[in-house]
Amino acid sequence: MHNHTQPRPMFIWRTIFWMTFLLIPFALSSQTYKLSGSEGEVMVTGTSTLHDWEEIAEKKSGSIGLDVSGELPKITTLKFAVESESLKSGKSGMDKNTYKALDSDKHKEIVYQMTSVKSISKASSANTYKVIATGNLTIAGHTNKVDLPFNLTVNGSKVTLDGKYGMKMTSFGIEPPKALMGTIKTGDEIEIHYTTIWK
Length: 199
Known about the structure:
- It is a single chain.
- With 199 residues, this protein is α+β, with helices and mostly antiparallel strands.
- It has two helices and twelve strands; from the N terminus they run αββββββαββββββ.
- The longest helix has 22 residues, at 8-29.
- The termini are far apart.
- Residues 60-194 form the Lipid/polyisoprenoid-binding YceI-like domain.
């Protein structure tokens, strides 16, 4: 009498092995990159009745999830935050007015959280892609849905996001700051310029 049950454990192990082997590429294909706080730059530029101005964000954080297994990368997650009171212009009076306008005592961070990718396409240089990401931008406690355009460059363990986004302060319920008893007025239109490094 032959015993046919003997090879069964071997068959089970072989099945587990192949299932694991086939699933590994999917597990490895999506990677999370953390924003480097010490590299890159996030700058806000604007105008006033006296002169143009700029502020640089000294504290920023975030993470991006990327799946680079296909022809075009897939952005699975993207979150980006700047500490409101880390915006510095080099002029303490202007900084104070900025923090007041941002209501930074209550709202410590400016946050962008992606909800979907509107479009992604290859750019002219290698490993670079043009992206428009839809997400929620929260400034001074006011959230708007925005389309954020940027170039995404994937280089091994390093990812670069760079672009610029123009907006009106009043669209976030922010009254453009004034100085010197209201004689110097800031323009409503500002631009956020960013070159960020993620690892």
